[in-house]
Specification:
507 residues; alpha/beta; Glutaredoxin; Ubiquitin-like (UB roll); 4 domains; five-stranded mixed sheet; 14 strands; iron-sulfur; Nuop51_4Fe4S-bd_sf
Length: 507
C-alpha cells in the first residue's frame, strides 16, 4: 500500500469518509488499509451526512462507487475485489462519473448528498483533510478583496458581526491603532449546530486558507482557533492541519480552548474566556471587538463558516452570485426528530424545504425550529435561507433547522428553551438574568391555568430591545413564535389538556 497523502490526484484510490472521532470509521479505515496491496487508501473527513458514514468511496479514472456504512469485513472484501476486478459496481449504492481531477465530492443524482449544493462543503469527504496537496491555496496569491466586493455576510451566532457585511469589521480593524488579530470562533457546545465542526474536520486547510486571506487584508500576523475544551480529537486534528500548512500560508493560527458552556460561544464571551476571565460573560459594546478585542487588540471574530465563505469567494468567485441578497451559500444543520442529522448547503434561490430531502423523519412533521436553540418556530419551510428572509419571518439565522414531529408539544418545547435560557445566561444584564426567569414562570403559569399572552409578548419585546447578551435578546423568540403558530395549544394547556398527549404529568 502506498503512503497516505493527496487523495485528489490518485487513481485508483479508496476513501473512507467519517468524523474525526468516529470509532467505526477508524475500524473501517483500518480494514481497508490492511486489505489494500496496490490501491491507495485515504482517510477523509465527514461529508456532513451522518446517515452515510462511514462512507467508502472507490474511485478509478473519473468514476466513483459509493458504499454507505459498510462493515469492516465488507470493506475488506470491497478493496480486494477492487484490486482484482476493478470497481465493485454491482455492490455500490451509487456510481458517479466525474472529472478525473475533481476537487469536490461527486454527487449522486438522488439521496441526501444531492440536497442543496456542495461548494463550501465540496472538499468534505473527498480530500485528505491534512494534506496541503489536496487544496488550491488562494491566500498565497490574493487577499480577501474579492469577498469585499461581493459583500459576503458574516455567518453564525459565534460571529462578532453575524448577518452584517464582513468588510465592516475588517475596515474598522484596519483603521484602529494596534496589531490586528484573527479569531476563529468554533466553540459551539450546542450539538444542534454541526457545520463548523464539519468544516474543521473535513476541510480544515480550506478554513485556514480563508483565515490567511482575511489576515492579509487587515494586516494581521497572529490568529487563533478557539475550540471547545472537550473536543480533544478535533483540537489535535486542527493542530495537525496547521502544522501541515505552516510553511505555505502567511498566517497560521494557534489552537486555544474554552469552556463547554453555551454562553462561551458568544463572540465577546469567547474573548473573555481566552483571556482567562473567572466569569464568562459578554462585553458591553461599543467598543466592538474590531476596535478592542483580545487583550485590547483590534480583533476579527468569525466562525469557520464565514472564513470558508471568504475562501470560496477568493478561490472561485464565479461560483458566487454577487447580486444575490445574501451572496454565497448558507450551511444548514438539519436535526431534530430525524434518524440522523445532515448538513445541507443552500444558496439564496433555494428554500428551507430542501432540508427535507437530506434526512428521514421519525414521525410526521409538525413544526420546525429554525435558527438554533433560540430560533423561531414555523410550519412553513418555504423561506429562503438568507439573513433578510429569515429575519423577516422571525426565524433565527444560525443555520439550524430542527424538524419536529407530531409527537412534540409546542408549549413544552418552548418552555424547555425558556428554562435553558434562565440557566445558561451570564447574569450580567437584567433582561438576561431576570427576564428569562420571568419568561419561564409565565410558561409554568400556563400549566396552572393562566395563559397571559399579552404579558409574554410585552416581556419579549422588552428583553429583545434592552438585553446586552444574545441569550436575553433571543430567548423570547421560541415562545412567541410558538404562540403565533399554536396559540390554541397554549389555551388548551391552560384548560388542563395537552393536544399532543405528552404533558399528562404536568396537567
Amino acid at each position: 500500500m502506498t503512503n497516505e497523502i493527496g487523495a485528489v490526484r490518485r487513481s485508483p484510490v479508496v476513501r473512507v469518509s467519517a468524523a474525526v472521532a468516529a470509532d467505526r470509521g477508524d475500524r473501517v479505515y483500518a480494514a481497508a488499509r490492511d486489505a489494500a496491496a496496490s490501491v491507495s487508501v485515504v482517510r477523509t473527513g465527514p461529508t456532513g451526512v451522518d446517515e452515510l458514514e462511514p462512507l467508502v468511496l472507490a474511485t478509478d479514472d473519473g468514476r466513483t462507487a459509493f458504499f454507505r456504512s459498510p462493515s469492516p469485513s465488507t470493506t475488506r472484501d470491497l478493496v480486494t475485489e477492487f484490486e482484482s476486478n476493478g470497481l465493485p459496481m454491482s455492490r455500490a449504492d451509487a456510481i458517479v462519473d466525474h472529472d478525473p481531477d475533481a476537487t469536490s465530492l461527486p454527487v449522486p443524482e438522488t439521496g441526501p448528498l444531492a440536497a442543496g449544493r456542495r461548494l463550501v462543503l465540496g472538499p468534505c469527504g473527498w480530500v485528505n483533510p491534512l494534506d496541503p496537496a489536496d487544496y488550491t491555496l488562494c491566500s498565497t496569491e490574493r487577499d480577501a478583496s474579492v469577498a469585499v466586493d461581493m459583500g459576503i455576510l458574516a455567518r453564525g451566532r459565534g460571529d462578532a458581526i453575524a448577518d452584517e457585511p464582513a468588510i465592516d469589521a475588517w475596515e474598522r480593524a484596519r483603521e484602529t491603532d494596534g496589531d490586528p488579530l484573527i479569531v476563529v470562533n468554533a466553540n459551539e457546545p450546542d450539538d444542534r449546530q454541526q457545520a463548523d465542526r464539519t468544516l474543521l474536520a473535513g476541510a480544515p486547510i480550506a478554513v485556514l486558507d480563508g483565515v490567511a486571506a482575511v489576515a492579509e487584508y487587515v494586516g494581521a500576523e497572529d490568529a487563533v482557533v478557539y475550540l471547545n475544551e472537550h473536543e480533544t480529537t478535533l483540537q489535535r486534528h486542527v493542530r495537525q492541519a496547521a502544522n501541515a500548512i505552516e510553511d505555505e500560508l502567511p498566517v497560521v493560527p494557534d489552537v486555544v480552548v474554552g469552556p463547554d458552556e453555551y454562553r462561551a460561544g458568544a463572540p465577546t464571551a469567547a474573548l473573555e474566556a481566552m483571556e482567562g476571565a473567572d466569569r464568562i460573560e459578554p462585553r458591553l459594546q461599543p467598543p466592538t471587538p474590531a476596535e478592542y478585542g483580545l487583550y485590547g487588540r483590534p480583533t476579527i471574530v468569525h466562525t469557520p463558516r464565514t472564513f470558508a465563505q471568504v475562501r470560496q469567494a477568493v478561490h472561485a468567485p464565479e461560483s458566487i452570485d454577487a447580486d444575490a441578497p445574501d451572496p454565497g451559500t448558507r450551511l444548514v444543520t438539519v436535526t431534530g426528530d430525524v434518524e440522523t442529522p445532515a448538513i445541507v448547503e443552500l444558496d439564496s434561490s433555494a428554500t428551507l424545504e430542501t432540508t427535507l430531502d437530506a434526512v428521514s423523519m421519525e414521525g410526521s412533521l409538525k413544526m420546525a425550529c429554525v435558527g438554533g436553540v433560540f430560533g423561531g418556530f414555523t410550519t412553513d419551510l418555504g423561506v429562503a435561507p438568507t439573513a433578510r428572509s429569515l429575519t423577516a419571518a422571525d426565524l433565527g439565522t444560525d443555520g439550524v433547522v430542527e424538524l419536529l414531529s407530531d409527537r412534540r408539544c409546542a408549549v413544552a418545547t418552548a418552555g424547555e428553551r425558556a428554562q435553558f435560557a434562565s440557566e445558561a445566561n451570564s447574569g450580567r444584564c437584567v433582561p438576561g438574568r431576570e427576564g428569562t426567569k420571568q419568561l419561564t414562570e409565565l410558561l409554568r403559569d400556563v400549566y396552572a391555568g393562566a395563559f397571559r399572552s399579552d404579558g409574554i409578548r410585552e416581556l419579549g419585546r422588552v428583553m429583545a430591545r434592552s438585553s446586552n447578551c444574545q441569550i436575553g435578546a433571543h430567548a423570547p423568540r421560541p415562545v412567541t413564535t410558538a404562540m403565533d403558530e399554536f396559540e390554541s395549544e397554549f389555551r388548551a394547556h391552560a384548560n388542563g389538556r395537552c393536544p399532543s398527549g405528552t404533558c399528562t404529568d404536568h396537567l
